[in-house]
Amino acid sequence: MTSPHYYRSNTGFEAKEIIFMWRLSFSLGNTLKYICRAGLKTEGQDDDLRKAIDYVREEISHVERISSGQIIFPTEPYSIVWGSDQDAFTDCDPYEIARAWNFTDDLRYVLQYILEASCCRRCGDYEGSLKALRALEKILVLRREKP
After folding, report:
1. pLDDT at residue 73 above 50?
2. CA dihedral (41, 97, 26, 110) positive or negative
3. For the CA atoms of the chain, what is the radius of gyration?
4. Which percentage of the chain shows pLDDT scores above 90?
5. Cβ-defined contacts of 131-135 (< 8 Å, 24+)
6. Residue 120: closest CA among 29, 46, 59, 48
7. pLDDT for position 23
């Protein structure tokens, strides 16, 4: 199946491959997808960045439910499916992806925060998601302030 150009398959770092490699949740995967394609599929970046923000908020809500005990992860199936090789989890450097996608520093940091959020979500920590949310909101504010 051929992927559209806005998922950056021509860079060697297609969005869906990064999502699988980093083992992102549904919400974080969609966050990455919308950041990846921001401004490439539609006229403006703002709509895609707003969608990314919505998905980060959804992730934070989900992780809050995990930390409060409303959602319980089974431990065995997870370790069987993913294995114990945690090095493979972070083999693809967010900085390398950001360079290939020609991202500005602010979006490069968002990629780093998404990876951090993915690594910490199972223990109920959503600091990486909060950082990604703040960074995306700041990007939108700065875009509005530019003449």
Report:
1. yes
2. negative
3. 15
4. 13
5. 132/31, 132/56, 133/53, 133/56, 133/57, 133/60, 135/106, 135/109, 135/110
6. 59
7. 85
Q: How many domains does the chain have?
A: 1
Mean pLDDT value of segment 36-62: 87
Dihedral (CA of 48, 12, 90, 66) sign: positive
Domain that holds residue 27: 13-145
Look at the pTM and tell me if it is higher than 0.85: no
User: CB neighbours of 131 closer than 8 A, spacing ≥ 6?
Assistant: 109, 113, 116, 117
Contact criterion met (CB below 8 Å) for 101 and 12: no
Query: Per the domain annotation, does 92 fall within a domain?
Result: yes
Query: Is it the case that residue 71 has pLDDT exceeding 60?
Result: yes
Report residue 91 as tokens.
């083999």
Query: What does the pLDDT read at residue 27?
Result: 92
Q: How far apart are CA 116 and CA 111, in angstroms?
A: 9
- Give a yes or no: residue 98 inside a domain: yes
Cβ-contact 90, 117 below 8 angstroms: no
How does residue 11 score in pLDDT terms, banded at 50, 70 and 90?
confident
Q: DSSP code of 109?
A: H
Asked whether residue 46 is domain-assigned, the answer is yes
